[in-house]
Write a structure and sequence with these properties.
alpha/beta; 6-stranded mixed sheet; two-stranded antiparallel ribbon; globular
Protein backbone atom coordinates (compact mmCIF):
# COMPACT_ATOMS: atom_id res chain seq x y z
CA UNK A 1 0.00 0.00 0.00
CA UNK A 2 1.71 3.22 -1.19
CA UNK A 3 1.23 6.64 0.37
CA UNK A 4 0.23 8.04 -3.04
CA UNK A 5 -2.48 5.36 -3.40
CA UNK A 6 -3.93 6.16 0.03
CA UNK A 7 -3.87 9.91 -0.56
CA UNK A 8 -5.60 9.48 -3.93
CA UNK A 9 -8.47 7.54 -2.40
CA UNK A 10 -8.82 9.88 0.55
CA UNK A 11 -8.97 12.85 -1.81
CA UNK A 12 -11.61 11.08 -3.90
CA UNK A 13 -13.59 10.24 -0.73
CA UNK A 14 -13.52 6.53 -1.58
CA UNK A 15 -12.52 3.69 0.76
CA UNK A 16 -8.83 2.88 0.98
CA UNK A 17 -8.28 -0.77 0.16
CA UNK A 18 -5.40 -3.06 1.00
CA UNK A 19 -4.45 -6.55 -0.12
CA UNK A 20 -6.15 -9.43 1.66
CA UNK A 21 -4.40 -12.79 2.05
CA UNK A 22 -6.89 -15.55 2.76
CA UNK A 23 -5.34 -18.73 4.16
CA UNK A 24 -7.57 -21.79 3.87
CA UNK A 25 -7.01 -25.12 5.59
CA UNK A 26 -9.13 -28.22 5.73
CA UNK A 27 -9.41 -29.75 9.20
CA UNK A 28 -7.01 -32.53 10.19
CA UNK A 29 -7.68 -36.21 9.67
CA UNK A 30 -10.76 -37.40 11.55
CA UNK A 31 -10.82 -41.02 10.44
CA UNK A 32 -13.32 -40.70 7.61
CA UNK A 33 -15.09 -37.49 8.64
CA UNK A 34 -15.52 -38.47 12.27
CA UNK A 35 -16.31 -35.94 14.93
CA UNK A 36 -12.84 -35.76 16.52
CA UNK A 37 -9.33 -35.72 15.13
CA UNK A 38 -7.23 -38.85 15.06
CA UNK A 39 -3.69 -38.78 16.41
CA UNK A 40 -2.53 -38.20 12.83
CA UNK A 41 -4.99 -35.32 12.51
CA UNK A 42 -3.66 -33.67 15.67
CA UNK A 43 -0.10 -33.99 14.41
CA UNK A 44 -1.14 -32.47 11.09
CA UNK A 45 -2.75 -29.49 12.84
CA UNK A 46 0.28 -28.79 15.02
CA UNK A 47 2.63 -28.96 12.02
CA UNK A 48 0.42 -26.60 10.05
CA UNK A 49 0.43 -24.21 13.00
CA UNK A 50 4.22 -24.29 13.09
CA UNK A 51 4.36 -23.53 9.38
CA UNK A 52 2.04 -20.55 9.86
CA UNK A 53 3.87 -19.24 12.93
CA UNK A 54 5.88 -16.89 10.74
CA UNK A 55 2.87 -15.50 8.89
CA UNK A 56 1.37 -12.19 10.09
CA UNK A 57 -2.02 -13.73 10.84
CA UNK A 58 -4.44 -11.55 12.78
CA UNK A 59 -7.41 -13.93 12.95
CA UNK A 60 -8.27 -17.63 12.85
CA UNK A 61 -11.86 -18.61 12.03
CA UNK A 62 -13.23 -22.14 12.10
CA UNK A 63 -16.43 -24.01 11.42
CA UNK A 64 -18.67 -25.26 14.25
CA UNK A 65 -17.92 -28.99 13.89
CA UNK A 66 -15.52 -30.50 16.41
CA UNK A 67 -12.92 -31.60 13.87
CA UNK A 68 -12.57 -28.05 12.53
CA UNK A 69 -12.63 -26.45 15.98
CA UNK A 70 -9.98 -28.82 17.34
CA UNK A 71 -7.75 -28.23 14.32
CA UNK A 72 -8.04 -24.46 14.71
CA UNK A 73 -7.23 -24.59 18.43
CA UNK A 74 -4.12 -26.68 17.81
CA UNK A 75 -2.98 -24.31 15.07
CA UNK A 76 -3.61 -21.28 17.28
CA UNK A 77 -1.38 -22.69 20.04
CA UNK A 78 1.53 -22.22 17.64
CA UNK A 79 0.60 -18.61 16.82
CA UNK A 80 1.41 -15.60 18.97
CA UNK A 81 -1.58 -13.59 20.17
CA UNK A 82 -4.18 -15.13 17.84
CA UNK A 83 -7.38 -16.69 19.19
CA UNK A 84 -9.43 -19.20 17.18
CA UNK A 85 -13.06 -18.10 16.81
CA UNK A 86 -16.06 -20.08 15.60
CA UNK A 87 -17.89 -18.93 12.47
CA UNK A 88 -21.08 -20.56 11.19
CA UNK A 89 -20.23 -19.61 7.62
CA UNK A 90 -17.11 -21.83 7.80
CA UNK A 91 -19.19 -24.97 8.38
CA UNK A 92 -19.61 -28.11 6.29
CA UNK A 93 -22.38 -27.44 3.78
CA UNK A 94 -22.99 -27.77 0.05
CA UNK A 95 -22.36 -24.23 -1.23
CA UNK A 96 -24.21 -24.59 -4.52
CA UNK A 97 -26.64 -27.15 -5.91
CA UNK A 98 -26.28 -27.38 -9.71
CA UNK A 99 -29.05 -28.11 -12.14
CA UNK A 100 -28.59 -30.97 -14.60
CA UNK A 101 -28.66 -28.59 -17.57
CA UNK A 102 -25.52 -26.75 -16.46
CA UNK A 103 -23.42 -29.89 -15.98
CA UNK A 104 -21.44 -31.71 -18.67
CA UNK A 105 -23.75 -34.43 -19.99
CA UNK A 106 -21.16 -37.16 -19.46
CA UNK A 107 -20.75 -36.26 -15.78
CA UNK A 108 -24.24 -35.15 -14.75
CA UNK A 109 -25.44 -38.49 -13.32
CA UNK A 110 -22.25 -38.99 -11.32
CA UNK A 111 -22.26 -35.46 -9.90
CA UNK A 112 -25.95 -35.44 -9.01
CA UNK A 113 -25.62 -38.90 -7.49
CA UNK A 114 -22.70 -37.70 -5.39
CA UNK A 115 -24.68 -34.75 -4.05
CA UNK A 116 -27.79 -36.83 -3.44
CA UNK A 117 -31.08 -35.41 -2.27
CA UNK A 118 -31.34 -32.61 0.28
CA UNK A 119 -34.22 -31.19 2.22
CA UNK A 120 -35.27 -27.61 1.41
CA UNK A 121 -33.60 -26.27 4.56
CA UNK A 122 -30.16 -27.58 3.57
CA UNK A 123 -30.59 -26.37 -0.01
CA UNK A 124 -31.21 -22.88 1.36
CA UNK A 125 -28.70 -22.94 4.22
CA UNK A 126 -25.59 -24.02 2.30
CA UNK A 127 -25.76 -21.30 -0.38
CA UNK A 128 -26.65 -18.66 2.23
CA UNK A 129 -23.58 -19.50 4.32
CA UNK A 130 -21.43 -19.61 1.17
CA UNK A 131 -22.56 -16.07 0.32
CA UNK A 132 -21.77 -14.99 3.87
CA UNK A 133 -18.28 -16.53 3.59
CA UNK A 134 -17.71 -14.67 0.33
CA UNK A 135 -18.81 -11.39 1.87
CA UNK A 136 -16.78 -11.92 5.04
CA UNK A 137 -13.43 -13.07 3.75
CA UNK A 138 -12.90 -12.36 0.03
CA UNK A 139 -11.95 -9.27 -1.91
CA UNK A 140 -9.53 -6.52 -0.89
CA UNK A 141 -9.61 -5.44 2.75
CA UNK A 142 -10.66 -2.02 3.95
CA UNK A 143 -7.74 -0.06 5.42
CA UNK A 144 -4.13 0.72 4.68
CA UNK A 145 -2.46 -2.47 5.96
CA UNK A 146 -2.55 -5.91 4.30
CA UNK A 147 -4.81 -8.39 6.09
CA UNK A 148 -3.86 -12.01 6.75
CA UNK A 149 -6.58 -14.37 8.03
CA UNK A 150 -6.88 -18.15 8.33
CA UNK A 151 -10.12 -20.11 7.89
CA UNK A 152 -10.13 -23.72 9.07
CA UNK A 153 -13.02 -25.33 7.26
CA UNK A 154 -14.05 -28.22 5.03
CA UNK A 155 -13.42 -29.44 1.49
CA UNK A 156 -16.60 -27.98 -0.03
CA UNK A 157 -16.08 -24.38 1.09
CA UNK A 158 -12.44 -24.38 0.04
CA UNK A 159 -13.49 -25.60 -3.40
CA UNK A 160 -16.16 -22.91 -3.59
CA UNK A 161 -13.77 -20.08 -2.69
CA UNK A 162 -11.07 -21.29 -5.10
CA UNK A 163 -13.69 -21.62 -7.85
CA UNK A 164 -14.80 -18.04 -7.21
CA UNK A 165 -11.22 -16.73 -7.25
CA UNK A 166 -10.75 -18.31 -10.70
CA UNK A 167 -14.13 -17.07 -12.02
CA UNK A 168 -15.11 -20.64 -12.85
CA UNK A 169 -18.77 -21.69 -13.29
CA UNK A 170 -20.71 -22.07 -10.05
CA UNK A 171 -20.91 -25.86 -10.25
CA UNK A 172 -17.13 -26.19 -10.65
CA UNK A 173 -16.45 -26.31 -6.91
CA UNK A 174 -17.18 -30.00 -7.41
CA UNK A 175 -13.97 -31.89 -8.13
CA UNK A 176 -11.66 -29.47 -6.31
CA UNK A 177 -10.30 -31.78 -3.63
CA UNK A 178 -8.30 -30.75 -0.60
CA UNK A 179 -6.26 -32.88 1.77
CA UNK A 180 -6.48 -32.75 5.55
CA UNK A 181 -4.42 -29.87 7.00
CA UNK A 182 -3.17 -28.83 3.56
CA UNK A 183 -2.82 -25.11 2.87
CA UNK A 184 -4.36 -22.88 0.21
CA UNK A 185 -3.67 -19.13 -0.02
CA UNK A 186 -5.64 -16.66 -2.13
CA UNK A 187 -4.50 -13.07 -2.66
CA UNK A 188 -7.08 -10.31 -3.23
CA UNK A 189 -5.31 -7.14 -4.29
CA UNK A 190 -7.01 -3.83 -5.18
CA UNK A 191 -7.61 -3.25 -8.88
CA UNK A 192 -6.56 -6.72 -10.09
CA UNK A 193 -8.00 -10.24 -10.26
CA UNK A 194 -7.69 -12.64 -7.35
CA UNK A 195 -4.63 -14.90 -7.39
CA UNK A 196 -4.44 -18.45 -6.05
CA UNK A 197 -0.90 -18.46 -4.63
CA UNK A 198 -0.98 -21.96 -3.11
CA UNK A 199 -3.42 -24.83 -3.47
CA UNK A 200 -3.52 -28.03 -1.42
CA UNK A 201 0.07 -27.49 -0.32
CA UNK A 202 1.43 -30.10 2.10
CA UNK A 203 5.08 -29.07 2.37
CA UNK A 204 4.80 -28.92 6.17
CA UNK A 205 3.73 -32.57 6.47
CA UNK A 206 5.95 -35.67 6.46
CA UNK A 207 5.14 -38.37 3.93
CA UNK A 208 3.05 -40.46 6.32
CA UNK A 209 0.73 -37.54 7.06
CA UNK A 210 0.20 -36.40 3.47
CA UNK A 211 -2.81 -37.12 1.26
CA UNK A 212 -5.28 -38.07 3.98
CA UNK A 213 -8.83 -37.17 3.05
CA UNK A 214 -8.06 -37.24 -0.69
CA UNK A 215 -10.26 -39.38 -2.95
CA UNK A 216 -8.84 -42.92 -3.10
CA UNK A 217 -9.23 -43.11 -6.87
CA UNK A 218 -6.35 -40.62 -7.20
CA UNK A 219 -3.89 -42.73 -5.20
CA UNK A 220 -1.45 -42.96 -8.10
CA UNK A 221 -0.97 -39.18 -7.99
CA UNK A 222 0.19 -39.11 -4.38
CA UNK A 223 3.82 -38.12 -4.74
Amino acid sequence: MTEQYAQHHLAANTPVLATRYLYLARHGDAGGEGSELTEAGRRQAVLLGRRLAGAPLTAVHHGPLCRAAETARLIATELAGVVAREAEWAGDHVPYWPERAELPAADADRILGFLGAADPRERALGPRLAREAMARCTGPATGTAPRHELVVTHNFLIGWLVRAALDAPDWRWIGLNHCNAALTVIRYAPDRPASVLLYNDMAHLPAELKWTGFPPEFAELRV
